[in-house]
Amino acid sequence: MNRRTILAGALMAGLMATGLSGIAYGHGGSEETAYGKPGDPKKPARIVQIVMREADGRMLFQPDRLTIRKGEQVRFLLRNNGAVDHEFVVATLEDNLKHMEEMAKNPDMEHDDPNAKRLKPKGTGEIVWQFTKAGTFDFSCLIPGHREAGMFGTIVVE
Description:
CATH superfamily: Cupredoxins -  blue copper proteins
Number of domains: 1
Helix content: 10-25%
Oligomer: single chain
Order of helices and strands: HEEEEEEHEEEEE
CATH topology: Immunoglobulin-like
């Protein structure tokens, strides 16, 4: 192996160790993913309000199931009514489960990507997303323990 190959491998290992591997799951860019692409905030969008909260020992999204038309652009208006930080991450179920494992190793990793937003208690945020492909997709809070406590939902794109 030459020096350049060794340095490239070390750089990639460092990115994976620091949690920047989220790029591999479609976070942080404007490219199209298996579950769509970042929307254009200047274009019309369907508004969907999502509330994050805790109740009776569970962590919840309300609503936790959405049906969206293929090609539709959605403006998610996010509100954390809970007492702790929560996040909203749209992806495939497989990608969110993989990223949840990375979050377990790096619990302080925060998201402010086109498909993800972390909010403090009583905080608000927004994600504009265009669902370009039909299928069943996931939204989750990937802060360690939150998805396991019930904080996930399903998006069906028809």
